[in-house]
Amino acid sequence: MFVIITNISGFCQYYKGWKFSTTINSESNMSDKERGEIPPSIVDVEPLSTLIVDEGHRVKLECTATGQPPPQYTWRSDEMKPIRLRSWQQSSINSNVLEITQVSRDQMGVYMCIASNGVPPPALKKLKLEVAFNSNTLKK
Fold this sequence. Notes:
- The chain contains one helix and 13 strands, in the order E-E-E-H-E-E-E-E-E-E-E-E-E-E.
- By secondary structure, the protein is mainly beta.
- A five-stranded mixed sheet has the order 5-13-12-7-10, with no helix packed on it. Strands 1-3-2 form a three-stranded mixed sheet, with no helix packed on it. A three-stranded antiparallel sheet has the order 4-6-11, with no helix packed on it.
């Protein structure tokens, strides 16, 4: 027969034929850091804040973050408009790199890199994409 005493770290004792030991619930008694979990932190975004590129050129936005477990990345438009890539559109891109092969003026705006790993809070960085175009080519 065993009697279990809980929440006493490392306690295991025999007394008159009875064994007393501990049961520790690691989910509720340990903090994220004690479990080795670290919230994400964005350490680098390329370019840093504003990127100006000519219409029709290639754009590459890259985000790097740390955290434990390693973070997952999402790029999305700050205005929540779809991101157009070639012939399709998506509300977000699940990658640390957002690459637009032929940028157009309607893709101008603020883009967000969001790094998350299940440990709150997620990390977020914004950068502004500006597209230079010839005003003579404006649609009428």
